[in-house]
Amino acid sequence: MRGQAHTLEATVAGLLMLSSLIFALQMTAVTPLSASTSSQHIENQQEATGEGALAAAAEAGALKPAVLYWNNSSARYHDVGDKGYYESGLPDNQFGAILERSFNENGIAFNIYFRYQTATGESKTRRYVFSGSPTDNAVTATHTVTLWDDDPLYAADETAGSTRLNTQNMTYPMPDTGANLYNTVRVEVVVWRI
User: Fold this and answer.
1) Which pLDDT belongs to residue 104?
2) Pairing state between β 181-193 and 152-154
3) Domain locations in the chain?
């Protein structure tokens, strides 16, 4: 009789534990977009790819010319539409080629922003490449470019033009913040998997 009571008690305890486990599992939804070590690993890889693309562009001397890839007469970047930034394509320069190899060929979406200061110290942002709204798992990489008063604007063929940042009637969107330093631009790449 005592053995039957212990067996019944163990069975009831096991059912209670099993019911608790099932209830707990139903309370937490696991989806393909749930955070996991694998998604964190992918985000780390994307951040490293963004940092690598910016470092490669800076090392190749392509990042600063990309920031200065401006048509002073049309008051916009070369070959952009009415919105004033690259939306359905990339800039036709060395930086655009680096972006193509780093992101587009690997199925990674990205946006590029230029963040700079106004003469009054206010922070402003300008779109350079816009692929859409990032997902929740997007990561960011940045690199800073210093612009000087005598830096030239770059033509569509990537050659340094005769127009300099300190030229009269300048249409360049980032203002002169004073002295010899024209402005400091933080190039920001926001990356996410499609």
Assistant:
1) 85
2) unpaired
3) 36-193
Alpha helices in the chain (DSSP H): 2-27, 37-59, 63-67, 94-102
Which residue's structure tokens are 């952009």?
Answer: 80
Q: How far apart are CA 7 and CA 36, in angstroms?
A: 40
Identity of residue 15: L
Q: Cα–chain-centroid distance for residue 136?
A: 13
Phi, psi values for residue 119, rounded to 5°: -65, -25
Each residue of 86-103: pLDDT tens digit? Answer: 997 899 999 999 999 998
Task: Convert the pLDDT of each residue in 105-148 to its tens digit.
Answer: 888 899 999 999 998 889 999 999 999 999 888 999 999 999 99
> DSSP letter at 87?
S
Q: What are phi and psi of 190, to 5 degrees?
A: -105, 125
